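EI: anyone free to look at a 292-residue chain?
SC: sure, send it
EI:
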Amino acid sequence: MTSRLNKPNRYYLLPLIVFFFAGFNHTALAQQPLVIVKTYGQHIGGNIVYQQQVTNNGSRDVVGIAIAEDTDQEGISGGTRDSGELDAFPVGSDMIHTKVNPASISGPTGWTGSIIQIQDSGLFFQWDSPGHPQPSIQPGQTVHFSITVPKYDEAYLTGHFSAGFADGNDPWYYNGVMEKLDTAPPTLSVTLSPVTLSPPSGNLVPITSTITVNDDYDPEAEIKLESITANEPLADGDIQDAQLSTDDRQFSLAAKCAATNLAGRIYTVTYSATDASGNKATAIATVTVPHE
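SC: here you go
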């Protein structure tokens, strides 16, 4: 392994290996940020796509980017994690790796992706290309990577990263913490139809929800029916066909009202919208059963 690291165009491997097995270098964080990684998530096609904007803020070409879920030494070497790191570097690697579906990862032109198992600690994604000096992340340049995963994972938004430089001068690599770009919750509004159930016949009435949601980054924020409550005790069957914690926009409510409730029964329906960066908004709408 030592001789291979000393070969031309293999120098970039050392900083990344040091990063994974030596843990996170907190001293680097106190320095001027040589590399900046900004992230956000998007719901696309039933999955979550995490976007990474990598900016070279220094004076040397960057030829490797590793984005780690967990840089704790125990987590790296102890085999306690079941998922791993995102790694990208543009120089062809002869490390043993298994190719993954190209639809799951994306990088700049000339960078391809693969996935590697690190002992028992998990997996990391890596991009390869023919060789330096092109392509690389040049001083002042911003490039974009992405990874598609089936469910939300905060580590791809606020985890640590390591950047390897093209030359062999100290520092060989730079560690930092990713910055989450999307910090604002979606805007959410809910209207119900009908909004009045009269007279209070006791019959079940179908209710339809109309939802409007907008987010700065996520085109398909996740909608969930959080709860349906009322201002008086409910009997079994007063709410039917409501699937909580799902995007359920049709259910039935009983047109009932207690004889002593002069204000009428008021159903309160709560929905949430959560973007792929973990920002959540809630909104309520009501249905009234007037007292006779």
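EI: Residues 13-22 form the longest helix (10 residues).
SC: 👍
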